[in-house]
């Protein structure tokens, strides 16, 4: 009996030791990556902008490490692809921000897959923008839990239509608040387990919507720091963007307080950055360019990393770095095996930890819409082969290429070699069909965003990401999608629609090869467009409305590639439905 009691005490002691070690072992730190959308380098008080106050975000840099020269890509999808893989987006075939061009090449491990493989619980909450249909969906690329939207932008930030692990759900309140609340819940549920948490928040991307409590502070505020060309700044847009950033800052504070309350702050690496330059002409430290530009202002972002007790406070790093460096740096800090990955990024852990070591000279490439610029430690060669001294001319005012012809020629050759590795041209000429029926996924969305209209049907807006199809007036009108069915089976199909009362009785038919699925619209649903009631600045995106689902029925799909076609063989009173999306549910595993 005595020996039994001793053995039990030893087991309890070992358990307590292991549990304690699991929670505080520096070899298994938790990872949180916060990525904002369209926030410029200048949109923080950390960088000297007195128009706003961002104490919680600033504290990540003040209590950790900040990079003075950190670069992403000019728009959303390319940066996200590089952050997730450590590989330049051009090698991943990412050539657009919608209609399939945002998808990353399959077979490339993501940072989430690597951490998951090594025992981490993974989650992503927010704007994905690297593929909607599995196996491009976040649940198929390493994330155990996903909540948010997969398109490039969303038309409504208050109680919006979202998805949770493929299921269509309704959001709760203001979207960024909702996303951070999900993140805080995730941390609480995984406080005893190592986790990798990715929060790609949707703001300050347009539409410019923010709760009134933030807007009231800025609505009539005088902006003392303005764009270097004041005549082209839309101050109302700037005020909206800054108020949205202050909301993100409040949410970052909520998250950090939760980590502290759970005693996880000392063993959690928190990273903060944005995906591209500012989405308007506002104060950005005099940098040239904004979102969409390959100049400094379009691709430079704040980058902070905090890890109390491991990363010294207030370190500022001047060496150039980029989104491609995040994967190798975080996996090394967590002491995960590299498995022989061939990537473009560099491990920056020696810089971050202040352990010294020689940093080899490097070149970082920025590319979008056929334009490539490159950045060395001291120079930027723009897409027109102009050279700028970035130590003394951050605004790129003085072209010094004529005095440095040898350097310019060398950099041009380096750029040509990099562009030769690109898969963008091939991906653009031969776009992959949209996938349906991935073996490990139950749900697949086929949205209006990815469809092609024929006849009188038009998009609700030229920007497809949150659009719907309307003006469906002829039986000869149709919508098609090139679809590759990955696994044969029976699929339940729901269609999200609106329909005026006078058009009830119209027939909608889905065609796949010889298979047909037809339904009659029996219920009127004609909600108004919305979004304008929350917009603080005029939008360019589509307004949205509340669509409802109708179960069309079940259809048998065979493996292979074909056109999925939606038609309306019978139209009542000159018009049929407005169409938002199809949701396929695989019924047989």
UniProtKB/TrEMBL annotation:
Gene3D superfamilies in the record: Alkaline Phosphatase, subunit A, Galactose-binding domain-like
Ranges for domain Sulfatase N-terminal: 29-335
Record carries keyword Coiled coil: no
Record carries keyword Signal: no
InterPro entries: Alkaline_phosphatase_core_sf, Sulfatase, Sulfatase_CS, Sulfatase_N
Domain of life: Bacteria
One Pfam family linked to the record: Sulfatase
Key words, A-Z: Calcium, Hydrolase, Metal-binding
Entry similarity comment: Belongs to the sulfatase family.
Protein name: Arylsulfatase
Organism: Croceivirga thetidis
Lineage: Bacteria, Pseudomonadati, Bacteroidota, Flavobacteriia, Flavobacteriales
């Amino acid at each position: 009996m005595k020996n039994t009691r001793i053995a039990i005490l030893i087991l309890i002691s070992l358990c307590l030791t292991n549990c304690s070690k699991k929670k505080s072992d520096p070899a298994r730190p938790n990872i949180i990556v916060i990525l904002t959308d369209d926030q410029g380098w200048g949109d923080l008080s950390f960088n000297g902008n007195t128009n706003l106050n961002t104490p919680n975000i600033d504290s990540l840099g003040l209590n950790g490490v900040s990079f003075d020269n950190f670069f992403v890509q000019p728009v959303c999808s390319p940066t996200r692809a590089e952050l997730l893989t450590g590989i330049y987006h051009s090698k991943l075939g990412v050539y657009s921000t919608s209609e399939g061009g945002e998808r990353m090449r399959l077979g490339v491990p993501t940072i989430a897959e690597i951490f998951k493989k090594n025992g981490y619980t993974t989650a992503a909450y927010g704007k994905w923008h690297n593929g909607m249909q599995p196996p491009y969906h976040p649940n198929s690329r390493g994330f155990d839990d996903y909540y948010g939207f997969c398109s490039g932008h969303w038309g409504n930030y208050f109680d919006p239509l979202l998805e949770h692990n493929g299921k269509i759900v309704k959001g709760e309140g203001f979207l960024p608040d909702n996303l951070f609340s999900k993140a805080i819940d995730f941390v609480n549920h995984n406080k005893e387990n190592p986790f990798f948490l990715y929060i790609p928040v949707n703001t300050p991307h347009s539409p410019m919507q923010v709760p009134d409590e933030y807007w009231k502070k800025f609505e009539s505020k005088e902006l003392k720091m303005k764009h270097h060309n004041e005549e082209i700044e839309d101050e109302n847009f700037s005020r909206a963007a800054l108020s949205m950033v202050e909301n993100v800052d409040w949410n970052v504070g909520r998250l950090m307080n939760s980590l502290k309350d759970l005693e996880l702050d000392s063993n959690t690496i928190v990273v903060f950055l944005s995906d591209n330059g500012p989405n308007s002409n506002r104060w950005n430290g005099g940098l040239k360019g904004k979102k969409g530009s390959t100049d400094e202002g379009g691709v430079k972002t704040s980058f902070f990393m905090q890890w109390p007790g491991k990363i010294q406070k207030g370190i500022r790093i001047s060496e150039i770095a980029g989104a491609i460096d995040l994967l190798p740096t975080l996996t090394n800090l967590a002491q995960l095996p590299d498995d022989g990955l061939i990537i473009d990024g560099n491990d920056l852990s020696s810089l971050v930890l202040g352990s010294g070591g020689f940093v080899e000279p490097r070149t970082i490439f920025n590319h979008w819409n056929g334009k490539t610029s490159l950045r060395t430690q001291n120079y930027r060669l723009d897409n027109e082969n102009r050279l700028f001294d970035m130590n003394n001319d951050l605004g790129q005012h003085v072209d010094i290429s004529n005095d440095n012809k040898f350097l310019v020629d060398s950099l041009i050759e380096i750029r040509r070699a990099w562009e030769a590795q690109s898969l963008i041209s091939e991906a653009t000429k031969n776009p992959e069909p949209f996938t349906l029926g991935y073996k490990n996924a139950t749900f697949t969305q086929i949205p209006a965003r990815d469809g092609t209209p024929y006849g009188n049907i038009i998009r609700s807006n030229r920007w497809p990401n949150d659009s719907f199809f309307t003006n469906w007036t002829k039986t000869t009108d149709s919508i098609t999608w090139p679809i590759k069915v990955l696994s044969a089976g029976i699929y339940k199909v729901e269609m999200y629609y609106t329909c005026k009362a006078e058009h009830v009785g119209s027939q909608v038919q889905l065609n796949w090869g010889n298979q047909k699925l037809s339904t009659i619209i029996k219920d009127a649903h004609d909600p108004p467009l919305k979004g304008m009631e929350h917009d603080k600045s005029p939008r360019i995106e589509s307004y949205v409305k509340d669509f409802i689902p109708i179960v069309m029925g079940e259809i048998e799909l065979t493996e292979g590639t074909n056109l999925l076609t939606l038609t309306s063989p019978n139209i009542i009173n000159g018009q049929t439905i407005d169409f938002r999306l199809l949701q396929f549910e695989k019924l047989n595993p």
